[in-house]
Amino acid sequence: MKLVELRRQYHRRICEEIIRIIKKSGSSDYPNNADGSNTASREIAWELVKLMGCKPIYGSLSGQTVDNLFELITKDFLEEALGMLQHIRPGKWIYTTIAETSDLEYYRDLARIKRFVKQNRELATTLGPDYVVSPDIIIARKPVSDDEINRTQKLIETSDAAAKLTPIRKSNMDVPKPILHASISCKWTLRSDRAQNTRTEALNLIRNRKGKLPHIVAVTAEPTPIRIASLALGTGDIDCVYHFALDELKAGIENIKNEDQLDMLNMLIEGRRLRDISDLPFDLAT
């Protein structure tokens, strides 16, 4: 299967399982990734629906349901796409939406802190709730056995005084933990508070690691580039923001001739702060 076909499947699932048309008396109907009070947001969201080939489905879903589905569908897309790129980035990988960073290598010390905090109210007050991050999607690599390391040639033996501390070697750990490769934040829409939550999670990952920094990215279905900019602009906390339908977003904004939104979109793309969901598997393979 070509990646473009997998991308179409991804959009088809989003159209069928997530996108709903909100009908309100006294106002225009709009898709549920739009801000109903914002004309540009409604217009761009409608263009996305049309360009993705969505059949309009009227109704509503709770915000939690939408978020959970967006995470799951995006995780499934990435798992299949990265499986197709196994020859570029080999390894045994875990894809999940239900893990905490404390379950993973480089962050396992947080599990001990978590136990202490549960037993000490004063410590909980001091640290607050944000020291353990629960990313929306986690991609982690399983440690490898010595047999796997020695598959093509004899590189190492148990008795060797070498490579005794690296977590990629399974035999070095009493309880081997997966190694965090990527933390992916999924935001169906973006408001200022949601952008800040993503930045906070990213900074906690940066500060608390005991090893290399994982990929830290965000995926969104937000229709307005000016709001995407609240997360995408700046450097140092997240690698990049990925839009679930960037080509359709650009075409839709061009269709409605909104110059302000188009200028911002072009700035984000040309500044390498915004990419399409189809770029993400390749970036994660680096």
Overview of the molecule:
With 286 residues, the protein is of the alpha/beta class. It has a domain at 63-142 and 178-284: 3-Layer(aba) Sandwich (Rossmann fold), CATH 3.40.50. The protein is 44% helix and 12% strand. The protein has 11 helices and 8 strands. The protein has helices spanning 3-17, 39-51, 63-84, 109-119, 121-127, 146-149, 192-208, 225-232, 246-256, 259-270, 280-284; strands at residues 21-22, 30-31, 93-96, 137-141, 179-187, 215-220, 240-243, 274-276. The strands form 2 sheets. It has a 6-stranded mixed sheet with strand order 3-4-5-6-7-8. It has a two-stranded antiparallel sheet with strand order 1-2. Helix 1 (3-17) runs antiparallel to helix 3 (63-84), helix 4 (109-119) packs across helix 5 (121-127) and helix 8 runs parallel beside helix 10 (259-270). It starts with a helix and ends with a helix. The relative contact order is 0.14. The mean pLDDT is 91.
What is the topology?
Elements: H1 3-17, E1 21-22, E2 30-31, H2 39-51, H3 63-84, E3 93-96, H4 109-119, H5 121-127, E4 137-141, H6 146-149, E5 179-187, H7 192-208, E6 215-220, H8 225-232, E7 240-243, H9 246-256, H10 259-270, E8 274-276, H11 280-284
Parallel strand pairs: 5-6, 6-7, 7-8
Antiparallel strand pairs: 1-2, 3-4, 4-5
